[in-house]
Amino acid sequence: MIQFSKKAVLCLMALMLVCMTTTAGGKTTKSNQTSGFDWNPVMDAIILVESEGNPRAVSGNSVGAMQITPIFVKECNNILKKLKSNKRYTLSDRYSVEKSKEMFLLIQKYYNPENNVEKAIRSWNGGVKYSVKATNKYYRKVLAKMK
Predict the structure, then answer these.
(1) Cα–chain-centroid distance for residue 10?
(2) pTM here?
(3) What would you measure as the largest C-alpha separation in the chain, in angstroms?
(4) What average pLDDT does the segment 72-97 reach?
(5) CA 75, CA 72: separation in Å to the nearest integer?
(6) Residue 127 vs residues 5, 7, 132: alpha-carbon distances, Å
(7) How many Å apart are CA 22 and CA 131, to the nearest integer?
(8) How crowded is residue 130: how many other Cβ atoms within 10 Å of its Cβ?
(9) Residue 35 pLDDT
């Protein structure tokens, strides 16, 4: 197996994201952007890894296409409260791909304002205080789905 440096992987990821930020018609999807950044390739890859695209998937207390936990929903609602928003997510919203993506984007905007793809993928698997070593396998799986 070929080993790549962290810098090489990050450069490749950046290039992939630049190439994948537009749709076939040349338009970006505004609803899935954070500060002009298109998270669609990352979210779509996470959905494939987490549930193979099944919005009704259940594994323990994780449900939906993105396998969202109740704690995650609570954290999203805490962020919305801090932002003085009246919007709140429910546990049943985890079964909606659209609302799951909204929650993903909210978390990225709050905890990952620099739009670091590696941080987004690893924290999705290991939480905000993820361990690089513990999330390596997941990170590689998501990157493979992005290709």
Answers:
(1) 17
(2) 0.76
(3) 50
(4) 98
(5) 5
(6) 24, 23, 11
(7) 32
(8) 17
(9) 60
